[in-house]
Structures are given as C-alpha cells and as structure tokens.
C-alpha cells in the first residue's frame, strides 16, 4: 500500500518470502510501467556481470567522452 507521504508498505508475507529485514538496503527502478524492487547486493551483482562482459581492451570512459565531444561539436 502507498501511504499519503509516498511511503510504500511491503506486506509481511512478501518481506518474509524475499528474506527482507528492517534496515536492508533496497534498489528500486522503473521497468516500463512496473516498479522493480531488488536488494542492493542483487543490483550490484547484476552490474558486475554487465561490466565483466566488457573486454579489458575497451574503455567505456573514452567512448563516452568521444560521444560527448561529438555531441558538443554538433551543437
């Protein structure tokens, strides 16, 4: 249930099924019209998996900088 102050209440049975405890850090994001809740550990593991698929010879920072420079030059 969403409270008047925008707080989301997760029912006890769902908290129990997900192994959530008071004080756990959670990550929320929107996927289409859905609100997805996952533990911060799960979100971090997913990001590590994505980063592991990038070859060490590829610099995402350099690619981003090149894209930004090109966008600035196109303005």
UniProtKB/TrEMBL annotation:
Keywords: DNA-binding. GO terms for molecular function: DNA binding. PROSITE patterns: SPOVT_ABRB. Pfam families: MazE_antitoxin (PF04014). It comes from the Bacteria. Residues 1-42 form the SpoVT-AbrB domain. This is AbrB family looped-hinge helix DNA binding protein. It comes from Quadrisphaera granulorum. The lineage of its organism: Bacteria, Bacillati, Actinomycetota, Actinomycetes, Kineosporiales.
């Amino acid at each position: 249930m969403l409270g008047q102050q925008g707080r989301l209440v997760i029912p006890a049975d769902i908290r129990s099924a997900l192994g959530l405890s008071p004080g756990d850090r959670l990550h929320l994001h929107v996927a289409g019209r859905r609100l997805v809740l996952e533990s911060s550990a799960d979100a971090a593991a997913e990001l590590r998996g994505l980063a592991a698929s990038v070859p060490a010879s590829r610099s995402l920072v350099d690619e981003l900088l090149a894209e930004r420079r090109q966008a600035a030059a196109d303005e």
